[in-house]
Amino acid sequence: MNTKELLAILPVKRVAGALPEEVTDLTTDSRAVSAGGMFVCIEGYTVDGHRFVGSAIESGARVIIASKPIEVDLDKAAVVYVESTSRAISLLASVWCGYPSKRMKMIGVTGTNGKTSVSNIIHGILMGAGERSAVSGTIGFNLDGVLYETENTTTDVLTTQKMIARAAEEGCDTMTMEVSSHGLIEGRMAGTEFDIAIFTNLTHDHLDFHGTMENYGNAKGLLFAQLGQDFQQHKVAVLNADDPWHTKMKEMTSYPVLTYGIHADAMFKAANVNLRTDGTSFTLCCPEGEWEVEMRMIGEFSVSNALAAITALYAKGLAIPDILAPLRYLAPIKGRMERVETELPLTIYVDYAHSADAIEKAIDAVLPYKSAESKLIFVIGTGGNRDRKKRPVMAEKASAADYVILTTDDPRDEPYDSITSELAAGMVHKQFACIGDREAAVRHAIEVADEGDIIIFAGKGHEDFQIIGSTKYPHSDAAIALEEAGKKFGKGLIGN
Ligand SMILES: CC(=O)N[C@H]1[C@@H](OP(=O)(O)OP(=O)(O)OC[C@H]2O[C@@H](n3ccc(=O)[nH]c3=O)[C@H](O)[C@@H]2O)O[C@H](CO)[C@@H](O)[C@@H]1O[C@H](C)C(=O)N[C@@H](C)C(=O)N[C@H](CCC(=O)O)C(=O)O
Ligand SMILES: Nc1ncnc2c1ncn2[C@@H]1O[C@H](COP(=O)(O)OP(=O)(O)OP(=O)(O)O)[C@@H](O)[C@H]1O
């Protein structure tokens, strides 16, 4: 790309050296620099990108964007000084990728819980309806059915723009993105024009980062504020009326609002909710009349997630029958109260709950179907070096299960005992064990299980690793449980 055209977007303070006519690539990672590229130095939480200018130039960078004085051989590369390199990369990424979000319908989903579920329900319905669709978030970047790994739920601004550009180039009509509060605060969504913004809920999480619930709510509100004020574009906010924070999100935007809910008054409301162990049905009451909805996902939280998806797709212009038909056959979302198919005399679910509210919702999804003679065993861990205040509150909610195993979920550098003892402080009954090693915790769940019991392995969901120190070790709750249960009950996976 022409260097001057690219740099025209930046408020430049000073240029040192001669700029090349063209740059071949744009990156913030010295390890990814290619010959003739532009390297933007970002001051991170861990390291300062200005440290890697030397290696970036060795790899062929011809332009460096910096905010601090740096020593550079100006025969090899030019330096463009700006006030803020993180602001600079937001602007550069949009120009580099040609404002790709303007070429598709963009749907953003934010909230403490339900982002992955709602965005994948939307994607699944669109694919089922024959549209080309992309979705990004905790599970990765799914481009019309092909999954690519991503580092974060909401990726850095350059990766985000490149991902959207790729989806647009591949002919996707819609891209749905999970938008985390970290992503919003750190400007990872800069340049992304959303047409529809969805709010699921706001409960205690990530307070190590945001400090207070008010800050956390404000961070989520940015998605709605950033819808902008251009009323020639038909944008919509889709808000969960069951969550009191929805009024705050409403205040953040001047665009029309559509509400959904199960308990509160809402424009898209679920009535006659029938929760079963193999699926859910409800009556959708909406401006288009009343419709019977059937789906394979379980738990009341799935009704809320389905309502969010239905409302957003209606706002996008789909007819209600075209939304409900694919929803009926949609498989449960990977790792979200996903039942492990086995021949065992046990019912096993893998779930991603790692906040108090999610734990409550996951337990509520199965408790009504548990017989009086059987137990609900709940395995839950929290991450090390992350929000510690949520630990006792999570355990308090987990106490609704008959037997709780407190363990770790990516302990990182924190000792096992520190995590499990802080969880244990919130337990309201004594039927629990603290087992920091997650593999041993999973095996223990099988050891104490009797025929007919239900086990929920919470926290890992779709993930197939456990981070100990800074190393990612392979880990699968389901695989360990099946191996252990196979030994105990002589059975395993269907077909084994
Ligand atoms: C705390 C935080 O937000 N950290 C994010 C941040 O990392 P960082 O600031 O530590 O980056 P850094 O390692 O210091 O690097 C700084 C710069 O130097 C560059 N560098 C670095 C090394 C090198 O050799 N050469 C080089 O050029 C890097 O490419 C970068 O540009 O920037 C990285 C790139 O964008 C992110 O991947 C990383 O997320 C980490 C992995 C993380 O755990 N983030 C969590 C808190 C997070 O963002 N979570 C949310 C919410 C999830 C949820 O809702 O549950 C998410 O969206 O994922
Ligand atoms: N609408 C909801 N309300 C409350 N809990 C929910 C809801 N949807 C899902 N959950 C619970 O939260 C867990 C995580 O769900 P999901 O991955 O969809 O949320 P998320 O917002 O993407 O989470 P994360 O930010 O951690 O990626 C699920 O496994 C389930 O236990």
What does this protein structure show overall?
Belongs to the MurCDEF family. MurE subfamily. One of its GO terms (molecular function) is UDP-N-acetylmuramoylalanyl-D-glutamate-2,6-diaminopimelate ligase activity. Pathway: Cell wall biogenesis; peptidoglycan biosynthesis. InterPro entries: Folylpolyglutamate_synth_CS, Mur-like_cat_sf, Mur_ligase_C, Mur_ligase_C_dom_sf, Mur_ligase_cen, Mur_ligase_N, MurE/MurF_N, UDP-N-AcMur-Glu-dNH2Pim_ligase. Catalyzes the addition of an amino acid to the nucleotide precursor UDP-N-acetylmuramoyl-L-alanyl-D-glutamate (UMAG) in the biosynthesis of bacterial cell-wall peptidoglycan. With 496 residues, this protein is an alpha/beta fold. It has 3 domains: 94 residues, Udp-n-acetylmuramoylalanyl-d-glutamate--2,6- Diaminopimelate Ligase, Chain: A, domain 1, CATH 3.40.1390; 230 residues, Mur-like, catalytic domain (UDP-N-acetylmuramoyl-L-alanine:D-glutamate ligase); 158 residues, Protein-Tyrosine Phosphatase, Chain A, CATH 3.90.190.20. Helices cover 32% and strands 23% of the residues. It is built from 16 helices and 24 strands. The strands form 4 sheets. Strands 9-8-7-10-6-11-12-13-14-15-16 form an 11-stranded mixed sheet, sandwiched between helices. A hairpin with a 2-residue loop joins strand 7 and strand 8. Helix 3 packs parallel to helix 5, helix 10 packs antiparallel against helix 11 and helix 13 crosses helix 14. The protein is globular and about 80 Å long. The mean pLDDT is 95. The structure holds ligand UAG and adenosine-5'-triphosphate. The site of ligand UAG has 19 residues, from helix 6.
